[in-house]
Amino acid sequence: MVRKPAVAGMFYPGDEKTLRGMVEGFLETAGVVSDPGVTGIVSPHAGYMYSGSTAGAAFAKAPDHVDTVVVVAPPHRYPVHGASVFDGEGYMTPLGVAPVDRVVTERLLGAGLVYQPRAHVAEHSAEVQVPFIQVKWPAAEITVVLQGSTDPDFSGELAAALLEALRGRDHALVVASSDLSHYQPLEIAKAKDRLIIDAFLSGDPEALERAAASGGEACGIGPMKTLMRYAILNGSREFGAIAWTTSAEASGDTSAVVGYFAGFCSTGR
Q: Beta partners for 144?
């Protein structure tokens, strides 16, 4: 089973040539140097005209050699209990089919996670990450996890499951898909986003919990918690910021913006 694209021609270009050129442009113009020690990134998931440059900065920071990418993304269109692991053969975009890493996927399913098919059909938060993976690492395989739970204990369990599932995958990357503040005036968005970003930079998953409780907004707060816990388990000690932008940079409207953050976790090696 190959998942067909749901938002091609809406969130990103629907033809191969335009899409490839756009993604290559985002990666090349990011002005970011690749870090071979990066084990995970935070990447936004809005339409490319709004968040593509920020996503490009996140992927540009990732290692040049990656074989397996696990995308942990929040569901927007269908409720997910716990987390749902896509149990298919590939994700199709206008660039072709990104093959699923069946070993990693089956390890996660064997760890007690399940596949909730309806959640994946129309979800954009994972799909928009795939063209970046296809352009930067054409031979990479992917595993897609939609995380519905924001419970910190669940994120800890999922992080441990990811660590075990990626055993033997020496060139793996975890992507936490998340936007930040939603439809706030620009100055309020800056303050709310600063709470989330500072918590991420602290390297303390509990700080991220407190930031969310104090008014910080991130639709992918669950995936971000999971990434932080996974990164710590995997030896990452550096948590950094790459870029922060808002939808106002594309729309010119500062009255109700969405915040976009590119961040990374690195072992420093």
A: 71
- The whole-number average pLDDT for the span 8-21 is 98
CATH number, domain with residue 103: 3.40.830.10
What single letter denotes the amino acid at residue 226?
Answer: T
Q: How many domains does the chain have?
A: 1
Give the domain range for residue 201: 2-266
Q: Does residue 161 carry a pLDDT above 80?
A: yes
Q: Are 105 and 85 in contact (CB under 8 A)?
A: yes
pTM over 0.90? The answer is yes
Taking alpha carbons only, the member of 64, 136, 62 closest to residue 98 is: 136
What's the CA gap between 215 and 189, in Å, rounded?
10
Q: How far is CA 258 from CA 147, 178, 214, in A?
A: 21, 11, 18
Pairing of strands 96-99, 38-43: unpaired
* Confidence bin at 242 (pLDDT 50/70/90): very high
Distance CA 23, CA 239 (A): 25
3-state secondary structure the chain: CEECCCCECCCECCCHHHHHHHHHHHHHCCCCCCCCCEEEEEECCCCHHHHHHHHHHHHHHCCCCCCEEEEEECCCCCCCCCEEECCCCEEEECCEEEEECHHHHHHHHHCCCECCCHHHHCCHHHHCCHHHHHHHCCCCEEEEEEECCCCHHHHHHHHHHHHHHCCCCCCEEEEEECCCCEEECHHHHHHHHHHHHHHHHHCCHHHHHHHHHCCCCCCCHHHHHHHHHHHHHCCCCEEEEEEEEECHHHHCCCCCEEEEEEEEEECCC
- pLDDT the model gives residue 140: 98
**Taking a C-beta distance cutoff of 8 angstroms, is the pair 188, 256 a contact?**
no
